[in-house]
Specification:
The structure is a single chain. Helix 1 packs across helix 9, helix 5 packs across helix 6 and helix 5 crosses helix 9. By secondary structure, the protein is α/β, with parallel strands linked by helices.
Length: about 260
């Protein structure tokens, strides 16, 4: 393991709570493999302190930028001086770059990482309905990526209806032919995505019952910290399962290029 020195630079991943964050085990080795003396460091930051923490860390030349995870993506969007096209549509950022003049530029790479992983794992079929459970930061990014990639039918579900309706309205404004279903019907689904935090803890309820899925449906659970009960139940049925680690691995090159100012 390469330890950081005074010449090293850092990407902070900000979360609350942060106990589940395992991203540094993927990011820091990737940075080394690509000739970067960069290290990812997790920080538990309560929402009330997010703005102050980002402003403080931005003042250090040792800091490259930030990776945002639950629950900070919408709030981080508001702190940016400029945002990229995906973030502009989704209203969230999961990646912030510190410019030379100290300004903050944000972008959302959850959707790109998800889509590239789904394609690489062979579970993306634009001809089938995709069901996305969760309309938070990750859910918004995933729905946007699916619609932009040509999916014409999306099932969209959330514990509370307001985020679903807001997301659906925004999607329809950009993709007017998109068929969005709110009823929890899965009989025609080719892919079901858990875009919630359900599964971070073993005691969590499953986002839905995999017994309701067609035999040729795939499951993509964005949880990377552990193999969730939802993943295991879907695999026990013989369904194809992709986890959040695949999403991280496919976000890595996109985010690294962004932090380097190449994208």
């Amino acid at each position: 393991m390469q330890l950081p020195t005074g010449a090293s630079r850092f990407v902070f991943i900000l979360a609350h709570p942060a106990g589940h964050v395992g991203a540094p085990r993927y990011y820091s080795p990737y940075f080394r493999e690509h000739g970067l003396d960069w290290h990812m460091v997790p920080l538990d930051v309560a929402p009330a302190h997010l703005a102050d923490m980002i402003r403080t860390l931005t003042r250090s030349d040792s800091v490259v930028g930030f990776n945002l995870t639950m629950p900070h993506k919408p709030a981080a969007f508001a702190l940016c001086d400029a945002v990229g096209p995906a973030a502009e549509f989704e209203g969230v950022v999961n990646t912030i770059r510190i410019e030379r003049d100290g300004r903050l530029t944000g972008e959302s790479f959850d959707g790109g990482g998800f889509l590239n992983a789904a394609r690489a794992e062979g579970v993306f079929d634009p001809g089938r309905r995709c069901a996305v459970i969760g309309a938070g930061g990750a859910g918004r990014a995933i729905c946007h990526a699916l619609a932009a990639a040509g999916v014409e039918r999306i099932g969209l579900f959330n514990e509370t209806p307001e985020p679903v309706q807001a997301l659906a309205q925004k999607l329809r404004s950009r993709f007017p032919k998109l068929d969005i279903r709110f009823e929890e019907q899965f009989d025609d689904c080719g892919l079901v995505v858990n875009a919630t935090s359900l599964g971070l803890q073993a005691a969590d309820a499953m986002p839905m019952d995999p017994a309701r899925l067609p035999e040729d449906c795939a499951v993509f659970d964005i949880i990377a910290a552990r193999r969730t009960e939802f993943m295991m139940a879907a695999a026990a049925r013989g369904l194809r399962v992709v986890d959040g680690v695949a999403m991280i691995r496919h976000q890595l090159p996109l985010q690294t290029a962004f932090w380097k100012g190449e994208a």
